[in-house]
Amino acid sequence: MSPSKVVEGEVDFVVPTAGKPCKTWYKIIGDLTAPTSRRPLVALHGGPGVNHAYLLILEDLTKTQSIPLIVYDQIGTGYSTHLPEKMGDTTFWTEQLFLDELDNLLTHLSVQKDYDLLGHSWGGMLGSRHAAIQQPKGLKHLVLASTPADMGLWVVSQNAFRAQLPLDVQDILDKHEKNGTTDSEEYQAAVGVFYSRHLCTIKPMPGPVLEGFGWIQKDPTVYLTMNGPSEFHITGPLKDWSMIKDAHKINVPTLVLNGRYDQAQDPVVAPFFSEIPRVKWVTFAESSHMLHWEERERYMSIVGNFLVD
User: Fold this and answer.
1) Dist CA 292 CA 295 (whole Å)
2) Rounded to two decimals, what is the model's pTM?
3) I want to staple 73 with a disulfide (CB 3.0 to 4.6 A). Which of 80, 88, 92, 175 is the partner?
4) 291 Rama class: left (phi>0) / alpha (psi -120 to 50) / beta
5) Nearest to 259 by CA among 287, 282, 278, 231
6) How far apart are CA 39 and CA 263, in angstroms?
7) DSSP assignment, residue 146?
């Protein structure tokens, strides 16, 4: 099989309140204009504040189904413009900022009239809102992978799993959260135990997953501002985020995915299944939050068949 065409670029993203010019970095794998290509798939990474690296594995769909893949780094992370001076500014780091960025990219790449969306975790939160509120005519399929329908349900799920951790790990988490030292190496190591069970069970953790999540350490501005210090205590504006009242507005075929050991447990994603009119839900029995890595072959088969249906 011949290598896929790869194009990298940047698109200007005008944000009047940024105080400086902003750009969104993107990569296209596959040919958007080839007669043999299918509708492009735009992949939205999680975090907020991770980057695209751990979603490049979706190139499998380009190779097997001729689906062009578009990945990008959301503003504030990866190769896109960083704004560390906006740390703590909840009037700047809003959901609408990222929705505007997505619209800007779709228009720049001239795919806004015919595209599919796959959002992982926070990326699915963005994707679901994009689909529900805007109901764009060009959106044809939506994949919500390990995506919470409500952050209150998400926190309940995280703390239920936390209660199953070894007692010494729980004690470390409690101590540093009480002391406000969640940036300590000991605390991060304890969180790592949690992630090894519920973020990605592959050992060692794949390099692209480490790279993607490593951006939160390199520049924690977006994550700390919108989310907070950890998955267990969300103190940013995302603590009140919910799609439960708007999910019924999603009018395209939607695929909901989660894993048995996922941070997005069944009750966290169930409202999507209950409310979206045309929806299918698949749970991966051997996976946590990185379904596309942990059960790669099955994942690509299910997603690929859904997108070309």
Assistant:
1) 6
2) 0.96
3) 80
4) alpha
5) 287
6) 30
7) S
Name the stretches of the chain with pLDDT < 50.
1
Q: Degrees (nearest 5) of the Cα angle 48, 243, 257?
A: 70
Element (H, E) at 103: helix 95-108
| 233 vs 173: CA distance, rounded Å | 11
What are the catalytic residues?
A: 121, 262, 289
Report the distance separating Cα 259 and Cα 280, nearest Å.
Answer: 15
The reported pLDDT for the residue numbered 121 is 98
- The CATH number that domain 6-308 falls under is 3.40.50.1820
Please report how the helices 185-198 and 167-179 are oriented relative to each other, as an axis angle in degrees rounded to 10. Answer: 130
Instruction: Confirm if 158 and 135 have CB atoms less than 8 A apart.
Output: no
Q: Which residues pair with 29 in a beta bridge?
A: 6, 69
| Domain chopping of the chain, boundaries | 6-308
Decide if 292 contacts 299 (C-beta within 8 A).
yes
Cα gap 17→36, rounded to integer Å: 42
Tell me the C-alpha distance between 207 and 77, whole Å.
18
- Dihedral pair phi/psi, residue 250, rounded to 5°: -70, 115
Ramachandran region of residue 128, left (φ > 0), alpha (ψ -120 to 50) or beta?
alpha
Structure confidence by residue, pLDDT tens digits, 27-45: 999 999 888 889 999 999 9
Question: Amino acid letter at 86?
Answer: K
CA dist., res. 65 & res. 112, Å (int): 21
- 229, 88 in Cβ contact below 8 A? no
User: Is the Cα torsion angle 260, 265, 269, 273 positive or negative in sign?
Assistant: positive
Other C-beta atoms closer than 10 Å to the C-beta of 190 total: 25
DSSP state of 291: H
For residues 119 and 145, is the Cβ–Cβ distance under 8 A?
yes
Can you tell me the distance from the alpha carbon of 83 to that of 89, in angstroms, rounded to the nearest whole number?
10
**CA–CA distances in Å: residue 89 to residues 19, 46, 249:** 13, 20, 30
